[in-house]
């Protein structure tokens, strides 16, 4: 349960599912294995909870979705907050039920008093400070989402120096990795923009919209069909590429069906989350395998992830059945 919460909090700072899985895999998995937790549960919970970085703001995928669809980034980030918390709560409920039913899955650890628990939190102030800088800046209106990203990067830089964890070599590595990731993202966005032009020129999107509108089925059935398609695509495509390549075709259909694009942004990101842990190409699973090494076989991690995949389907069904879960906070933001 603490691993789920830790992943959710780290995701709220990093905005990246892969980074969350890698960081928490180094911290949480060895501790759970040391306490004789079931290896599938210990690795599965981190691989699955790492995907919360896609929903909980500030989410990189949400920002790119907003840029691509020209929807409000602020509303999209707010729309992902409650679904992200809901996903974490459903994961925790499932883990708790399984552990109660079979205590060997997660044996009880040594008891600790409240003084020890509170003292252990003294090193988390920097994470809370960074989250406050980024999200507080956006929703107070002091900075735009773009400026908040710069403020967050500067804040992380300063906190790294204050904590004496950022030296010349690590700073260089951070800059090189940032440049590499940014280049990859911009290459994908550029390719997607060219693809959009091609789709518009051929009229495929318009034809698909007309075709979907004339289907003698309820709109929700088309949405369910899209869910199946995205889950299948997630088994062999990376999340960013999948989103940018399908949005030009899917967005007009969704708009024509009368669905809110902010709400669909949450659904889309949930599809991508599922793809991050779906075999055979679950990126989070492979990232975690690289972290734990030979301690846990890859097949064990994939077996452990199946319970969490089932919970993701439950969450997805709730988000589709009750759009208010995603839209309540953005509506409140608009009113204020």
Instruction: Extract low-pLDDT stretches.
Output: none
Radius of gyration: 21 Å
**What is the H/E string?**
HHHHHHHHHHHHHHHH
Structural class: mainly alpha
Number of strands: 0
Reported for the largest beta sheet, the result is: none
Strand fraction: under 5%
What does this molecule look like?
- This protein is mainly alpha-helical.
- Helix content is 78%, strand content 0%.
- It has 16 helices and no strands.
- α1 (2-14) packs across α7 (125-139) and α4 (60-69) packs antiparallel against α5 (73-101).
- The longest helix is centred in the middle third of the chain and has 35 residues, at 168-202.
- The model has no long low-confidence stretch (mean pLDDT 83).
Provide a concise account of the structure shown.
This protein has 336 residues and is mainly α.
What labels describe this entry?
16 helices, mainly alpha, 336 residues, single chain
List the helices and strands and how they pair.
Blueprint: H1 2-14, H2 17-34, H3 39-49, H4 60-69, H5 73-101, H6 114-119, H7 125-139, H8 145-162, H9 168-202, H10 204-213, H11 219-233, H12 239-256, H13 261-277, H14 283-292, H15 298-321, H16 324-335
């Amino acid at each position: 349960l603490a691993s789920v919460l830790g992943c959710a909090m780290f995701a709220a700072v990093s905005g990246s599912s892969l980074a969350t899985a890698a960081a928490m895999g180094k911290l949480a998995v060895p501790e759970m294995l040391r306490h004789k937790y079931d290896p599938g549960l210990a690795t599965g919970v981190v691989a699955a909870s790492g995907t919360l970085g896609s929903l909980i703001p500030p989410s990189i995928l949400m920002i790119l979705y907003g840029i691509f669809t020209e929807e409000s980034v602020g509303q999209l980030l707010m729309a992902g907050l409650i679904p992200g918390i809901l996903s974490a709560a459903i994961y925790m409920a499932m883990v708790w039920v399984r552990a109660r039913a079979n205590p060997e899955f997660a044996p009880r650890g040594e008891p600790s008093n409240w003084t020890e628990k509170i003292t252990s939190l003294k090193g988390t102030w920097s994470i809370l400070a960074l989250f406050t800088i980024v999200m507080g800046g956006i929703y107070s209106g002091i900075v735009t989402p773009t400026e908040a990203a710069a403020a967050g990067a500067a804040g992380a830089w300063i906190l790294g120096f204050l904590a004496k964890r950022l030296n010349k070599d690590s700073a260089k590595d951070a800059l090189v990795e940032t440049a590499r990731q940014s280049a990859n993202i911009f290459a994908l966005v550029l390719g997607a923009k060219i693809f959009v032009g091609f789709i518009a020129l051929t009229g495929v999107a318009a034809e698909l919209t007309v075709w979907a509108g004339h289907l003698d089925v309820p709109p929700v059935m088309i949405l369910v069909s899209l869910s199946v398609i995205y889950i299948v695509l997630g088994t062999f495509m990376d999340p960013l590429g999948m989103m940018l390549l399908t949005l030009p075709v899917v967005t007009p259909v969704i708009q024509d069906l009368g669905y809110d694009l902010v709400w669909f942004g949450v659904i889309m990101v949930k599809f991508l989350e599922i793809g991050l842990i779906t075999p055979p190409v679950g990126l989070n699973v492979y990232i975690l395998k690289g972290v734990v090494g030979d301690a846990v076989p890859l097949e064990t991690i994939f077996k452990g992830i199946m319970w969490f995949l089932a919970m993701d389907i439950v969450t997805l069904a709730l988000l589709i059945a009750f759009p208010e879960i995603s839209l309540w906070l953005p509506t409140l933001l608009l009113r204020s």
